[in-house]
Amino acid sequence: MSVLMDSCAVMRGPKCGVEVRLREKAPQLLDIDGDSCHHIHNAVRQLCKPFDYHVEGLLGDLHNDFKWSSDLRERLEEICFFLGVKYTAPERFVSHHWLSCYDVGISTSRTMDAYPVFYYGLLNKENKSVYLATVMQIYHKLEVSPEVRENIRNIHQKLQEKRKTLSKDGIDWKMRIVKKLFFLRPQTTSTLQFYLAVLPVFKHYILIFEMKEPKIHKLYDKQADIITEFFSYFIRPELLQDVCPKK
User: Fold this and answer.
1) Rounded to whole angstroms, how far apart are CA atoms 208 and 222?
2) DSSP-H helix ranges across 49-123
3) What share of the chain in percent tops pLDDT 90?
4) Distance separating alpha carbons of residues 124 and 126, to the nearest angstrom
5) Given its phi and psi angles, is residue 31 left (phi above 0), alpha (psi -120 to 50 degrees) or beta?
6) pTM as predicted
7) Whether residue 85 has pLDDT greater than 80
8) pLDDT recorded at residue 42
9) Burial degree of 205 (CB within 10 A; 0-12, 13-18, 19+)
């Protein structure tokens, strides 16, 4: 008999979970394991844990900041157009969805240059002088012409009018985003790039698991590939050649 179940307490509770009851009826069962996709998700959570939810928190804040404001979304879309960046509305990060951080991170990385330019328009004069260098660096990187910069400056003026109507909580919310986009920008970009480089190793396994066609015969080999590829980031590849999964 084979049992595949979710790894939640209801199913695997120590007193009345499905696993306990199955063993009462069929004590000869040797092993009952949980959903391997949940194991992968939990492993990724542990991998990302040392980064203190830095990127995940930013993804959630960006989505919530634009979710209920159509005028802010329009301003962001205009800035993306002037910068030559493909616009997509900030997606929702859901911590319990499998590798949601990777899925949302892909679209966020594509528009990462547009966010500092946008939020620069919501800063006060003191912070603008501090973070001007970051915006100018993006302009030089994307080869933004003086004419386009003037158009963006007009958008910043509209954002300044918007700032006057914000509550204190709204300003504090945006300053939390600004901190990660400007002051902690090296940490934000490096952590996001680490996620986008490493997490596809695990994402590929989940995609195989979720296919309509039966792929059970491939899951064991894929698990071995995940372990080998992941360790290759930390161990010289030649030491992993011809090493069995058990070893």
Assistant:
1) 9
2) 54-67, 70-83, 100-110, 114-120
3) 47
4) 6
5) beta
6) 0.78
7) yes
8) 85
9) buried
